C-alpha cells in the first residue's frame, strides 16, 4: 500500500493482495489462539469468527488511515440515480437468493402430495429467537461482513486481479472466490451478487455503494430469518409464487449484468 496517497479510493487500490491475505492469515491464527484460551467462543459461530473480523477490520483502518474522500462518497449514495440502482440491484439479488430453497420446497410439496404418509423432506418449524445470537448475527453479518468483504473482494482482490487478468476475468475470479465462502445452496446467488458488486464498484469507484447493497441484503436476510419467514415463503400456497419470483429475479440479474458489461466495454 502507498501511504503517500491520501485519496481513500486510490489508497484502497494500492493495497496489495499479499498484504490483505497476510492480515487475514494473522487474524485467523489469533482467532484460533483466542478460542484455545477461551473455549466458550467456539460455542457460537458468530462469536467464534468475531475476533477474525475485528482484526481484519483493524488492518483496513490502519491501511486507509489519513485518507480523505469518504464524505464525498457517502453523499453520492443519496443521489437519485444511485439510490435507485442500490435498491434495484439489492432487490433482484435478494429475491434470487430464494431460488434453490423455493425449488426444493415445491418439490417437497409435490412429494408430500404423492406420498402423504411420508414426513416432509424440508423442516420449516419456527425456532425460538435467542436475543444474544441475534445481536451477534447483526454485528457479524450485517455490520462487519459487508464492510470487510467489500473492502477485500472488491477493493483489493478485484482491483489487483483486473491489472493482471483484465476486467471480465477479474470479475469472475473474485466473485467465484467470494461465492465459495457461502452455503452450498447460495453459491450461485453469491457469485452473481459478486459480479453485480464488481460492476457497480467499477462504474462508481465508490466502495460505499457496494457496502450499502451488501448491508441491505444481509439486514433483510437476518431479519427474515429471525422472524422465521421461511415458514411462510416456502409453504403452500406461497411457495410456488416465491419460486416464480426468484426465477424472474434471476433473469433480471442476467440482463443487468450483460447490459452493464456491454456499456462498460463501450
Secondary-structure-derived class: mainly alpha
Strand content: under 5%
Which ranges are low-confidence, i.e. pLDDT below 50, for 5 or more consecutive residues? Answer: none
Largest sheet: none
- Radius of gyration from CA coordinates: 20 Å
- For the secondary structure, the number of strands is 0
The number of helices is: 12
Which bin fits the share of residues in helices? over 70%
Mean pLDDT equals: 89
* Count of distinct structural domains: 2
Summarize it:
The protein is an all-alpha fold.
Write the layout of secondary structure elements.
Layout: H1 8-14, H2 17-37, H3 45-63, H4 70-76, H5 80-97, H6 99-114, H7 131-165, H8 167-180, H9 187-204, H10 207-226, H11 230-233, H12 239-265
Helix pairs in contact: 1-7, 2-3, 3-7, 5-9, 5-10, 5-12, 6-12, 7-8, 7-9, 7-10, 8-9, 9-10, 9-12
Amino acid at each position: 500500500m502507498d501511504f503517500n496517497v491520501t485519496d481513500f479510493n486510490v489508497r484502497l487500490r494500492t493495497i496489495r493482495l499479499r498484504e490483505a491475505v497476510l492480515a487475514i492469515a494473522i487474524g485467523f491464527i489469533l482467532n484460533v489462539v483466542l478460542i484455545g484460551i477461551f473455549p466458550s467462543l467456539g460455542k457460537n459461530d458468530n462469536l467464534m469468527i468475531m475476533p477474525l473480523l475485528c482484526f481484519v477490520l483493524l488492518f483496513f483502518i490502519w491501511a486507509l488511515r489519513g485518507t480523505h474522500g469518504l464524505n464525498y462518497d457517502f453523499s453520492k449514495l443519496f443521489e437519485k440515480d444511485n439510490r435507485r440502482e442500490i435498491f434495484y440491484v439489492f432487490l433482484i439479488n435478494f429475491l434470487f437468493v430464494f431460488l434453490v430453497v423455493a425449488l426444493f420446497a415445491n418439490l417437497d410439496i409435490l412429494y408430500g402430495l404423492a406420498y402423504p404418509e411420508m414426513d416432509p423432506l424440508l423442516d420449516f418449524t419456527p425456532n425460538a429467537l435467542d436475543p444474544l445470537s441475534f445481536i451477534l448475527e447483526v454485528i457479524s453479518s450485517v455490520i462487519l461482513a459487508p464492510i470487510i468483504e467489500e473492502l477485500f473482494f472488491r477493493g483489493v482482490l478485484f482491483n489487483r486481479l483486473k491489472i493482471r487478468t483484465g476486467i471480465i476475468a477479474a470479475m469472475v475470479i473474485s466473485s467465484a472466490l467470494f461465492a465459495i465462502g457461502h452455503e452450498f445452496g447460495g453459491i450461485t446467488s453469491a457469485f452473481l451478487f459478486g459480479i453485480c458488486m464488481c460492476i457497480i464498484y467499477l462504474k462508481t469507484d465508490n466502495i460505499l455503494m457496494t457496502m450499502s447493497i451488501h448491508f441491505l441484503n444481509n439486514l433483510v436476510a437476518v431479519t427474515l430469518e429471525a422472524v422465521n419467514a421461511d415458514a411462510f415463503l416456502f409453504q403452500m400456497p406461497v411457495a410456488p409464487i416465491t419460486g416464480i419470483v426468484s426465477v424472474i429475479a434471476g433473469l433480471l440479474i442476467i440482463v443487468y449484468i450483460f447490459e452493464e458489461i456491454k456499456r462498460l466495454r463501450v
